[in-house]
């Protein structure tokens, strides 16, 4: 094959890096010095730019009292000298994220409102700057804004209620060198909430985590900040994943909102049935075909796992979750989907 | 170290790339050593072993940026004295340099870079917002990143005594 097009390198960056190359591209990049060099150039520049995101208040805020005094003085002079109201001076357009983090208190306030209005699309940027604010007095403001956006975006009462519970249930925990999945299992058992880690993410371990009388929300916020993850209500559960997977509206990067049958309004009767049956399972490495069989047994809806995914082993633990959401969890994070054909739910891999 | 990890077959290529970047044998050697030391720590993250070479070159490039930053900081240290460029100031000063370089770029390139890397938007999302074709935005980003690299290099000149 010929060299990768410049646009493809940027596409790979969007998709999380070199892991997204196709087999053919992989073979080419292995051999081609030019492509290796191009990749190195843009990936390294991207890393350097990402690290230089707005991060601290610094000198701008140190000048705030002086600027405020100057503004008052100018206002007084203006009132005295002018008989008519001067036309408003338009300030240059500035990115609200930068203004929220580095602007004056007034700018930060209006930027906060703009970010709230932007909704979930503002979350990846906000979450990405969070590690740099560790230990800063502004971190709680940042966390509160992230939370407020999530809470505002949760229009569905069930989703709002899930988030509200995170903010009310309090727990104690202490872990040392423990895998994140076990920490989550512990929180799940104490809080009784469905917390699901994206199966495509290897969250690794936490070195030390000790919290007393903390809300589940703050525990998750700390855990996610440490592991560069985040959480939101997705597929009827509190779902933890990488921020871009949670919130990107780019279909190649973000997780889909719902299964194909729902977006295409297929099989209304089957859909109603799936919504009415609730599932409690602790699946540890069971093949998809067996899970499809179990769902069929409890719902009386025919469920078929297509050959490409039937033998793949699945891990999932949920309690009292409507089947429609359970099927989303079983398919969408893996890149699979579900459609309804002649009254049967078909779990399939869209790439095949 | 390189033999145990399977890096040895890439060392010559890394050395030659490092020499192109630094134009100095000792600096190139340091850069390769830095790169391999980082790579050893992070090798577990490489899922596709066939892409090890590209990954190593990415680390090498990254280490080169660190070298350029150090140069700039040392220069500042010499000009402004030690108190201005030590300890906690070092990292922000590095970021200040990135922002300075970014500020010197043309407005359109700067805008797409800020949207992509400060606001964590993908090229598809940027294209949607700017009402431009995705291919155009990706091409702009690619060229803006290359331009950023060359401007960064220019902003950190090597000083000879």
Walk me through the structure.
The complex is a heterodimer of chains A (352) and B (161). Chain A has 352 residues and is an alpha/beta fold. In chain A, 51% of the residues lie in helices and 19% in strands. Chain A contains 18 helices and ten strands. In chain A, the strands form four sheets. Chain A has a three-stranded mixed β-sheet with strand order 2-5-4. Chain A has a three-stranded mixed β-sheet with strand order 7-10-9. Chain A is globular. The model of chain A is unreliable at 56-66 and 79-93 (pLDDT under 50). By secondary structure, chain B is mainly α. Chain B is 76% helix and 0% strand. Chain B is built from eight helices and no strands. The two termini of chain B are 35 Å apart. The relative contact order of chain B is 0.09. The model of chain B is unreliable at 85-91 (pLDDT under 50). Classes of the chains: A alpha/beta (352), B mainly alpha (161). At the A-B interface, helix 1, helix 2, helix 3 and helix 8 of A face helix 4, helix 5, helix 6, helix 7 and helix 8 of B.
